[in-house]
Amino acid sequence: MRKTLSLNENWLFTRQGQDPCTVQLPHTWNAQDGQSGTSMWRGVGRYEKRLTFTPEDLQSFLYLEIGAASLVSRVYVNGQLAAENRFPFSLYRLPLNDWLQPGENTLLLEADNAECDNVYPRMADFSFYGGVYRDVRLIADGPIHFTETDRSRDGVQVRTSKKADGSWELQVTGTLVNHGSDCPGRVTVRLTDADTDLTAQCELQLTAQTPFAVHLDVPSPHLWQGTADPHLYTAEVQAWADQTLLDTRCVETAFREICITPDKGLFLNGQHMKLRGVARHQDFGGVGNAVTPAQMDTDLALIQELGANSVRLSHYQHDDYFYTLCDRAGILVWAEVPFISLPFTEQAGMENIEGQMECLVKQCGNHPSIYCWGVQNEITIAGESPEIHQMVQHMAQYTKKLDPTRYTAEANIYSVENQSPLNRLADLVGYNLYYGWYYQNIPDLQVRLDTFHAQCPDIPLMVTEYGVDTNPALHSYEPSVKDYTEEYQLLFSDNALRAFEERDFMVGSYVWNMADFGSAARNEGGKTGQNQKGLVTIDRQLKKDAFYLYKAYWSAEKFVKLAGSRFVHRHRECNDLTALSNLAKLALYVNGTLVQQTQQVQPMTTFAAVPLQMGENEILLQGWDEDGNLYEDRMTLCRVEQPDTSYVLPKTAGTRATNWFEGMDLPEVEPFELDENCYSSRDKVGVLLKNPQAHAVLSKYFGRMLDDPRRALMESMTIDAMSKLRNLGMPQGLVDVLNRELNKIPKD
User: Fold this and answer.
1) How many Cβ atoms are within 10 Å of 417's Cβ, its own excluded?
2) Rounded distance, CA 158 to CA 72, Å?
């Protein structure tokens, strides 16, 4: 029978520039610098451990399981390379017996998060933490066992489906490994819950590798109905020879049917369900991506408090425990691979992302919470091409072959035209839309949604990212784009939430992001090393005001919350005060006196022109639900003589969102015909930088952009393509000016 042993304790860790130390797994060496913006270290870290085996131990069939290690990892046993893994977010196993000897053995795990060829992600707006950041285990099997090395987690694939007559079926497939002589055997499946106990089996002749399939009819199962009723069954899968039990796997499963239409959205078991979702990265303040089960519990609790019913696990495979939490809570999951931002053109790159998708589907496919597989995210950020379309089409088809039972999905950058061929390559289309932050104005979101649906009425649509960077220390009476205030996040979010709720054709949305997360290249909003678009801070200790706005829209839990409690120092006599609530009636008191009340309650309700006295003011908000139950929230505001300048981000503060080209005085250029034998805006930046004269031209106009960590992105783009990215803010005339100078330089 299978036995497992945790190997997380007492590893000797070494890396360049640091003294050796003893660490516990999971571990990352970027727990601090991956979130602080202080020159995140990328390179090779080594973890060494000594293990002792008796001759009897080596009679078992031993496997080493690494939960995940980033970006490339290698396993050395007694000084010999035993395995290399290039799937940085996936579990992998390797057989150990051929590498071990009786007595003491040395195990060395090497993780490398330096830039590497043909390993996705190539670049992205999150920190590429290095380390062995998930659990490591030793597995001991008998001579006959479910496979450990087919890239799956459980060694069995469990699926449920509804048959034409309305009944249901459970299908269990897998492979049995036999290290001995051929012999007869069987696989049994037992499906149980509090009210059910059903069994089925198949007879087998056990050879070295024996595939199997067991089908079990389930006439009227208790359905998994999302957050309302996340009912789970247990499928116990066992391998037998004669009357001897050889191996067991226990998998939680569920029965549910999902249908998505382009006009009405998603239906779960025939019941309409608008997806109200958050996106999640796998890191946590102070620990990087080496998150603990308790920290994952915290994230799930936050999602539940919001009233969200779905989560986008961005942009890679997450810890298996979090998918389990979603199964048990009824949270629908968008799962995806890091085919993101910039594609590799070599075949090895496609093989890498195929492998990551295979691992994702095989290792996570048993989770009933997953409703779709995301095949790409903003892969056309550097521009569309037939080659990229072909890649996306291949990934969608490849994924559908791996799992025909689920939807395929993609998340496009805003610049992908509504009628682009890209939008017809997957079952479900999402757009990452930041109207009112990186480009245009807040209400333009509604225009884009309506235009898309009018032009593509047969395509199911989601918004897969939207949000604004928010520093909870910053505040404004007149919130505006790029001020990073809590007040602007409220305005932006309220518009988006109304837009999604008002449109029946919207499948749903994912706010970017549930929590602030590490992004080593960032420097904006008064903080380095973090993307601050979260509804909570990276340590999960502070809920921004917008958190409660989402709760007011989505949650059935009754509450009141005063926004602006961190905007303590107010220099105006009259102030608009904002209540966030899902109650039927509200009343506002200042210093014990009722100043306003209303029964016209919205998720965000403003009490206008509330007078404050000099000095401290005690604000009390009371609310009543339909049954007359009372809810309260309080805050203290202090009226002061002069504005508190600490609430305003200094303009000298570095920021990625600042327009690099601001203040450019560009001459007008008369139209002229480009010479194809000379460089121009049609050439990729990477090509231009290789020519000293062209490099000098770009340095003249791009300046510090060339030193930005996203340079890899720029190098893959033509200047023409860059000019179409509205978040860069490239002046209209800059392309003409560049062409005037570049087109005088003959191509090498």
Assistant:
1) 12
2) 30
pLDDT the model gives residue 84:
98
Domain boundary among 526, 548, 579: 526
Query: Hey, is 55 helix, strand or coil?
Result: coil
Read off the pLDDT of each residue in 387-405 and give the average, rounded to a whole number: 97
Phi/psi region, residue 643 (left: phi>0; alpha: psi -120 to 50; beta: rest), is beta
Helices marked H in 1-107 — which ranges? 33-36
| Omega cis (within 30) before 121 | yes
Pair 357, 479 in one domain: yes
Which residues lie across from 49 on neighbouring strands? Answer: 107
Phi, psi dihedrals of residue 620, rounded to the nearest 5°: -120, 130
The greatest distance separating any two alpha carbons of the chain, rounded to the nearest whole angstrom, comes to: 89
Q: At residue 619, what is the residue type?
A: I
Over residues 74-92, the pLDDT tens digits come to 999 999 999 999 999 999 9
* Amino acid identity for residue 404 in this structure: P
Range of 15's domain?
3-141
Q: Which of 3, 292, 340, 268 is nearest to 142 (CA)?
A: 3
CA atoms within 13 A on the CB side of 457: 2
Residue 330 CA to residue 276 CA, distance in Å, equals 13
> Which tens digits make up the pLDDT trace of 559-609?
999 999 999 999 999 999 999 999 999 999 999 999 999 998 899 999 999
| Helices 320-329, 293-306: crossing angle, 10 deg rounding | 40
Backbone angles phi, psi at 388, to 5 degrees: -65, -40
Residues 324 and 424 in one domain: yes
HSE of 37, CA atoms in CB hemisphere, 13 A: 18
Contacts of 692 (CB under 8 A, 6+ apart): none
The label of the residue with tokens 């000098």 reads 696
User: 323 with 212, same domain?
Assistant: no
What number of CA atoms fall less than 13 Å from residue 642's CA on the CB side? Answer: 3
pLDDT of 156 strictly over 50: yes
Contact 24, 47 (CB under 8 A): no
SS3 at position 36: helix
Gap between the Cα atoms of 475 and 422, Å rounded: 40
Separation CA 696–CA 679 (nearest Å)? 13
534: tokens are 């979260």
Contact call for residues 548 and 314 (beta carbons, < 8 A): no
pLDDT at position 657 over 60: no
Sheet holding 61-66, edge to edge: 3-6, 136-141, 61-66, 92-95
Give the tokens for residue 565.
Answer: 């409690």
- The answer to whether 377 and 330 have CB atoms below 8 angstroms apart is no
pLDDT at 208: 96
Cα–Cα dist 349/264, whole Å: 37
- CA–CA dist 475, 485 (Å, integer): 5
pLDDT of 383 reads: 84
- Kindly report, residue by residue over 690-733, the tens digit of the pLDDT: 998 999 888 888 766 666 555 656 776 788 877 777 666 677 78
Cα–Cα dist 300/618, whole Å: 34
Tokens 């085919």 locate to 339
Confidence of residue 618 (pLDDT cuts 50, 70, 90): very high
* In a domain? residue 558: no
Residues 320 and 269 occupy one common structural domain: yes
CATH number at residue 400: 3.20.20.80
pLDDT for position 659 = 45
Residue 90: Cβ within 10 Å count:
26
Other CB atoms closer than 10 Å to residue 360's CB: what's the count?
A: 27
In 593-629, the DSSP E strands lie at 593-598, 604-611, 615-624
- Give Cα 394 to chain centroid, integer Å: 22
Q: Are residues 245 and 271 in the same domain?
A: no
709 backbone φψ class: left, alpha, beta (φ>0; ψ -120 to 50):
alpha
Mean of the pLDDT values across residues 202-207? 96
